[in-house]
Amino acid sequence: MLKIGLTGGIGAGKSEVSRLFAAHGAVIVDSDVIAREVVAPGTDGLAAVVAEFGPGVLREDGSLDRPALGAVVFADPERLKALNAIVHPLVRTRSAELEAAAAPDAVVVHDVPLLAENGLAPLFDLVVVVDAADDVRLDRLVRLRGMAEEEARARMAAQASRDGRLAIADLVIDNGCGLAELEARVAEVWAELVRRAAA
Question: For the whole model, what pTM was predicted?
């Protein structure tokens, strides 16, 4: 089994690269998906979040109001730390379960947005960073996701710097390009991962 840590700053296109890896046959362990699962209604994770942040972070149907919670934690680093202290251990446990269920010869890609921020690079055989210039990422967040520029800049600032991510990369996928070019770059990296998994 080859364990890959896949990361990239918000707006870099990491989710698209993850999708392409899955199409090539990777087992994807998506931290964002798991982070939603562990705070779903009825979970201990959601109960812990409400205990920490109050009932104002819930929607009327009892599910987590992500925008309301985001408004609190992205404006205050200490509140973000408190949220991470609840969610990250739950995500790690579930990720380990999914990895353990993969075939022995699998390429397991852990899609981890905050890999650099949380010092997780040593947990993986290789780290793949999806990279795009800050102005490209900002444009995508505003134009494609409909974020206000101020919110997009705050989200970017809350993450590791571009240089910080590149410093932990074993392989870099440059995504300052169109989809066809990205698909070709991912195919090249996939071939390298398969070669290393077989070695």
Answer: 0.83
Rounded-to-integer distance, Cα 30 and Cα 86, Å: 18
Range 87-106 average pLDDT:
92
The model's confidence at residue 178, banded by pLDDT at 50, 70 and 90, is confident
The answer, yes or no, to whether residue 113 has pLDDT greater than 90, is no
Is the distance from CB of 107 to CB of 98 less than 8 angstroms?
no
Which helix (H) or strand (E) is 63 found in, with range?
none
Q: Give the type of residue at 39.
A: V
Q: Where are the alpha helices (DSSP H) in the chain?
A: 14-24, 31-37, 44-53, 66-73, 77-100, 134-143, 149-157, 162-167, 179-198
Instruction: Tell me the average pLDDT across 38-63.
Output: 96
Residue 192 bridge partners (DSSP): none
Count of CA atoms in the C-beta half-sphere (13 A) of 89: 8
d(CA 188, CA 57): 43
What's the mean pLDDT in 116-140? 95
Q: Rounded distance, CA 20 to CA 35, Å? A: 21
In angstroms, the CA 117 to CA 115 distance is 6
